[in-house]
């Protein structure tokens, strides 16, 4: 049984991790022969999970909570998840400089050092926006959080609508919408475009806020009318 499959973006190979811990490279230009990384004996433990960077030059392998980063055919970094939790999946950011793992919580790692730079214990799934600036997190309660990836600051309050755990997240190719699926098959589509948020705020308020209303929460020089006249 296979746990994960990762495709080389250049079409040179597939990498597979399964219950036997085998991580295999299948080079299509060599007739589909299977080359197993036999020198990596630790990869033979059950439950190997594998991921490839967007450029195909970096491979990350996890066995339970142990993590290895492979580059140029050799192990370049090796560590263990600080909480000891098993890792279930990988997802690189578009630039390949960070990777997010899921398991009991969601962890953000720096590549190639494998330094942990973020951890969200309640999250279950994660997805990067196409430009890598936003990380979406879905948790077991059905809530979704948007994180500004460079600073790790939350963007706005939780997005709520699901009645069960979020099990899948995916951004549209233009990054303006996020699609989420829960454990009962419910599907939601969310706008992640600030222009849409602004339009909704203006529709609800039906006017620009006054400087005195904004003053308690924003500096006075941050005030700028954006909605225009009612009905405009």
Structural description of this entry:
By secondary structure, the chain is mainly beta. It has 2 domains: 2-193, YVTN repeat-like/Quinoprotein amine dehydrogenase (Methylamine Dehydrogenase, Chain H, 7 Propeller), CATH 2.130.10.10; 194-232, no CATH class. Helices cover 7% and strands 44% of the residues. The protein contains 2 helices and 19 strands. It has a 4-stranded antiparallel beta sheet with strand order 1-2-3-4, with no helix packed on it. Strands 5-6-7-8 form a 4-stranded antiparallel beta sheet, with no helix packed on it. Strand 5 (48-52) and strand 6 (58-63) form a beta hairpin. The longest helix is centred in the C-terminal third of the chain and has 12 residues, at 194-205. Mean pLDDT is 79; it is low at 28-46.
Short note summarizing the structure:
This protein is mainly beta and 232 residues long. It has helices spanning 194-205, 211-214; strands at 2-7, 14-18, 24-25, 35-36, 48-52, 58-63, 66-71, 74-80, 87-92, 98-103, 105-110, 116-120, 123-128, 134-139, 144-148, 153-159, 166-171, 177-182, 187-191.
Q: What is the topology, as strand order, of the major beta sheet? A: 1-2-3-4
Q: SSE string, helix = H, strand = E? A: EEEEEEEEEEEEEEEEEEEHH
Question: How would a crystallographer describe the biggest sheet?
Answer: 4 strands, antiparallel
Mean pLDDT equals 79
| CATH topology (level 3) name of the largest domain | Methylamine Dehydrogenase, Chain H
CATH architecture descriptor text of the largest domain:
7 Propeller
End-to-end Cα distance, whole Å, is 60 Å
CATH superfamily of the largest domain: YVTN repeat-like/Quinoprotein amine dehydrogenase
* Cα shape: elongated
Helix content: under 10%
The total count of strands amounts to 19
Radius of gyration, in Å, reads 21 Å
Please tally the helical runs, counting DSSP H or I stretches of 4 or more residues: 2
CATH C-level name of the largest domain? Mainly Beta
